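#lab-general

N.A. 3:47 PM
ok so I finally got the sequence cleaned up, no stray characters, all 245 residues accounted for. can someone with queue access submit it? mine expired

B.Y. 3:52 PM
send it over

N.A. 3:53 PM
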Amino acid sequence: MKRRLHSLADQLRIEIPGSGFRTCIDTVPIFERELAGLAGLGWQAKNTMIIHPKLGSYFLLGVVATTLDLTPLPDQWLPTDHCGTCTRCIEACPTNAITPYSVDASRCISYLTIEQRGEIDPAFHRAIGDWMYGCDICQEVCPHNSAREDESQVNIAYTPRTQYLDVLEVLSWTAPDRTLAFQSSPMKRANLAMIKRNAVIAAGNALRERERPELKTRIQAIADDQAEPELVRHTARSVLTSFFS
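B.Y. 4:20 PM
back already:
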């Protein structure tokens, strides 16, 4: 998608000389969801995602910023809000981060695991479950993301992936391991300390489900390992205190 946006911008520079164009995908501080709604791509749902009438919310928003004067779409061309009385996303959120058309980032699992650089409040550990990076629960329960008769409308590049990270493996990662695993992936947004912090929390939650001595042993080793980042060691100590004291 990034290459397509760059190609589009290059073509526009040729066809409209003298105008400026810049592309981005979730890398600059732009309210792209609000702009996408104003551009007629969909409506902003109760979980704040943009929902396309045919594609649901499983797609990426690419931005082309320009110096051109653009005419806004007439209101009657903008998609209608079809959330109606549905509150599935609100009810399904494990941390109660969603209120109608608003998300409290300080409670959102996606924000906590991807954006927050420091400690995650232990009060949210259990709710995070096995999410080591991000969270799609509010999208998974959305009726507009249900199976469709015309599957050709769904872009295969944005369908859910079936590859998962092994929590025990992540707990032993070095910096080169992370770099290799996240090569050409937006998951590189989480640095090594962050992804291992998340893995420690996920490992603790896994131990709530069943006994896994190798996970417990690894968490205990991390808590005492001075070579580990303080963030990871502190999270390990917090997990051990909460679950095993």
